[in-house]
Structures are given as C-alpha cells and as structure tokens.
Amino acid sequence: xxxxxxxxxLPDMVPDLPSVFRGLFLLRTIRSNHKRSIGQxxxxxxxxxxxxxxxxxxxxxxxxREANERVNLIASVLDAQGVRSGDTVGVCITNRPEALLAVxxxxxxxxxxxxxxxxxxGDVLDHSQRLLDSKVMLIGAECEExxxxxxxxxxxxxxxxxxxxxxxxxxxxxxxxxxxxAMKDLPWLDDLARQMGGHASTDxxxxxxxxxxxxxxxxxxxxxxxxxxxxxxxTHLRWNKAMVAFGLSGARLRxxxxxxxxxxxxxxxxxxxxxxxxxxxxxxxxxxxxFSAKRFWDEIVHFDATAFIYIGELCRYLLNQPVRxxxxxxxxxxxxxxxxxxxxxxxxxxxxxIPRVCEFYAASESPVAFVNAFSVDxxxxxxxxxx
Length: 387
Fold this sequence. Notes:
Order of helices and strands: HHHEEHEHEHEHEHEEHEHEHEHEHEE
Oligomer: single chain
Number of strands: 14
Strand content: 15-25%
Protein name: AMP-binding protein
Keywords: ATP-binding, Ligase, Nucleotide-binding
InterPro entries: AMP-dep_synth/lig_dom, ANL_N_sf
Radius of gyration: 20 Å
Largest sheet: 8 strands, mixed
Helix content: 25-40%
Distance between the termini: 15 Å
GO molecular function: ATP binding; long-chain fatty acid transmembrane transporter activity; long-chain fatty acid-CoA ligase activity
GO cellular component, one term: plasma membrane
C-alpha cells in the first residue's frame, strides 16, 4: 500500500474523523490497570441513548434500555449463584439474544464468559468445560442434547439450588427445530428471578465499575484441528483495542447503522469484531440464527442492515446463488470481515451494490492486526504496529 493509496481513501474518512481521533486517543491512553471494560462501554451507550435500537433478532427489536434490564437481571441471577470476579460462566447457547445478553451479564460481574461451540459433543465438550472450570453453565434448550452427551461423571446437578457444586441454568425458548418468535419476554429468566424471592434486580450491578482492562472478558475455542480444542482468552484491554481498530477506524459505523451478523456468537469475529464495532458507534446488531446463502439477502432487507460481517468464503457462497432483486435492493453501505479473495473482490462489490469493503487480518492470539481503513481494493490494509 502506497501513500497515494492512502491519500485516495482519505476523502471517504472525513465525515468519520471525530470517531477515528477518539479511537486513536483511547488507543494511546488505555492501560491494563484502567477500569475500562465491555460492560462499562455498554452502560455508557445505555445512558447516552436508552431508546436507540441495540439488538434485532427474528421480528424483535431490543432498545439499549430493554437489553440492559435483561442483562442486569441475568447478572443478578448469576450473582445469586455465587459468580464472582475472576470466575467463569460457561455459555452454550445458539445464535439468539440470550447468548449475547449472557456475555454482557457475565462481564459486568468481572467474570469470564466461556463460549462453548454448540456443535461439540461427548469427550470434546467434556474437555472444553473442564478447561473452563465454569462456576455456572448456561445451557440453551436447543443445546440440551449436547449437554446430555457429556459423560455421567461430568454432568453438574442441573438445578438452580445448591451451592456446593457448579451447576447448570437452563435457558429455555428457541427449542431445536423451531424458529424463535417473541423472545423479549424471556419467561425462563422471570422464573429464575421468582425463585430468588423477587430479589433479582434490573439495576446496573456495582461490580461493573471495578472491572479492570487486564481481566479476561471471555474465552473462545479453536477448531481443534490439531488435537482437542484450546481456549483463547480475550481481555477487556484487547477488546477495547479491537473496537478502535475494527470499529472506530475500520468499519466506522454510526449510531444509525445496523450490522448484520450471521456468524456464530461463540467466535471472535462476532464478539470481538462485530460487537465492538457496534458498541463503539452506539449502533445496532442484527443477529442471524446461522448463515444461509438462500436467506441472506432476505435477512439483510428484513433487518434494514447497512453493513454485514463476513468470514472466509461466505461472499463466494453468495456469488454462487442465483441472481435475485434483494441483493441490490438494500441499504448496505459497507461490509467488513476477513477472507474476501482478490479474484472476486470487484465482482462482489459490483453485483451486490456494496460501496466499501473493510477487509482485515487478525488472529485470536496475534499481537498484530491489519485493517483496510482506507478502502484500498484487494488488500487487508495496514497496521501501526511494528512487524
């Protein structure tokens, strides 16, 4: 990438320079011992614009206030189960709001969310949950079969009561084989709150203000292609740096944007890239149950998405689909992700009417990330880190 390439991309950045400079200031000043966490960033958005849309799923739209109240209720339930700063909460829930709300609740307590791949079974799942050593595990009803595949000696008591052993909280709704409908009521959560004698609170927990940037926010698992899966830790510090690199400087989302994410919530592209970009802008995240090339453009239009996140050959799969009107009749202004090949780059932009591509390169445990902030075709951009 040359100076000329960067110069060509500067005009496109001008409207977003305030957020870029805000991010660069954060990048220069944030330290590991600072009280700066994902939960704090989320609460700042709630305070700033409580009625702004934060989550879209199926036919539901959650405002920042509505989501925060449910997050705080889950945090209250977890706190009652003995979850404290430094503990781990296992999360085995498919792509739906509860998965993300559980992560936000966990990090508000200063604990770490252990994001279990919902496709793991038997010995592999047993290995993962033993690595996490979770104080509590949140199991989606649609993941009950996965839980039952664990060896008998590894199953926890599976009830809300009891404090002498780690235990499972059943997260109902979204049963396997059904498309979840009205999810905002979360009756399972209300039931748990009632079992606590009405002491569950929707107020922000005081613990959020004490969480340090160096603490672990969540753990994601590698694919396990070279042995059993390994847990990779993401600290609040690295997440904040990702928010600057991928969100404020790269994607440059705005508060009016909706980012569509059909990628698994138990992976970094969703939690580290998509979520940080959305919270950095105070925008909205649309959750897809799973990637479907056939339904993709219908969901883009349904959610009125202005951006989406991709990985690997996702864009090639879209190219292989028959041409449809919806693939151009949308409000997309950019896409972000990694793995868009140079040979299809232009075709993707022209066929799908996509003005800007923010390609990046990063890895869970890499100290370097490259971001195509200046919109240079067929590149993964640049980095300010020596390499």
